[in-house]
Amino acid sequence: MHQTVLISLLVIYRLMFEEGGQRADSDTGWAHVANHDKAATVIDTILRLDVDKTYTKTALSEEAGVPLKTLYLDGTLEELVTVGLLEKHEAEGEETLFSVDDGSAAFEAAKAFDTAAATSSDVDS
Question: Could you tell me the superkingdom of the organism this chain comes from (predicted)?
Fold first, then answer.
């Protein structure tokens, strides 16, 4: 089980840096998440959202329990689009909508990590 967690972490790291592009202020995959104050909370929320629905920034903020201002100021949602956890839907004159990109490698890796960590916690208890 620990091997599954490690593999999931490596996939997330690779996706965030090789495909999404490394930021100058991030040395590791976890630093990348940590640089966005509530990224981990939003990722956890994304894993539980209805993949067939679209969400406004406000709705994502409310679902995650993260102030909209926080998501806006640190660019969390844009980063999650970049790494493939969210899809962005823009139409001129309309509010931007987001949906879960449940077919992406990043989503699969995050879901695998979530499942492996939960299973590992159950075994360790």
Answer: Archaea
Fold of 2-124: Arc Repressor Mutant, subunit A (1.10.10)
CA distances from 8 to 12, 33, 110 (A): 6, 15, 7
- DSSP track, 58-99: HHHHHHHT--HHHHHHHTHHHHHHHHTSEEEE--TTS--EEE
Tokens of 62: 């409310």
Q: Does pTM top 0.90 for this prediction?
A: no
Rounded Cα distance between 24 and 31, Å, is: 11
Cα distance from N-terminal residue to C-terminal residue, the chain: 14
The amino acid at residue 16 is M
Read off the tokens for 104.
Answer: 């992406």
The Cβ-side half-sphere exposure at 117, using a 13 Å CA radius, reads 10
Q: What is the DSSP letter of 102?
A: T
d(Cα 80, Cα 14) in Å, to the nearest integer?
Answer: 14
